[in-house]
């Protein structure tokens, strides 16, 4: 499930994902990101993962291709998670983002949000 957080405004997208990530979830996420990228020089992303049990592999691959194509349009990106595979995922996706991805543990989510919103930790 994809939840748009209230910190979303201007060129910032803040989302929380829980449980299962489906193709419609990824499609919704990519459409929002694409719209922000068309309107802004850089788009900053806060991506929080909580209790994620399953991710549709086809959607994950499509999302990875989107990131490769649009990597230079990303600004500050923070991924917040609670599992080792999430940290590895952030490290892998970081290679195609303009400024990389900063990974934070779930306990440090306020720090991650501050980085995305203000650029400082």
TrEMBL record:
<protein>
    <submittedName>
        <fullName>SpoIIAA-like protein</fullName>
    </submittedName>
</protein>
<dbReference type="InterPro" id="IPR038396">
    <property type="entry name" value="SpoIIAA-like_sf"/>
</dbReference>
<dbReference type="InterPro" id="IPR021866">
    <property type="entry name" value="SpoIIAA-like"/>
</dbReference>
<dbReference type="InterPro" id="IPR036513">
    <property type="entry name" value="STAS_dom_sf"/>
</dbReference>
<dbReference type="Pfam" id="PF11964">
    <property type="entry name" value="SpoIIAA-like"/>
</dbReference>
């Amino acid at each position: 499930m994809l939840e748009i957080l209230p910190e979303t405004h201007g060129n910032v997208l803040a989302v929380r994902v829980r449980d299962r990530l489906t193709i419609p979830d990824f499609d919704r996420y990519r459409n929002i990101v694409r719209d922000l990228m068309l309107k802004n020089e850089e788009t900053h992303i806060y991506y929080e993962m909580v209790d994620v049990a399953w991710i549709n592999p086809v959607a994950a691959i499509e999302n990875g291709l989107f990131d490769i194509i649009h990597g230079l349009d990303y600004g500050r990106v923070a991924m917040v998670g609670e599992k080792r595979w999430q940290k590895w995922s952030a490290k892998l996706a970081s290679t195609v983002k303009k400024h990389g991805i900063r990974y934070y543990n779930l306990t440090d989510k306020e720090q991650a949000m501050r980085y995305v919103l203000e650029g400082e930790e």
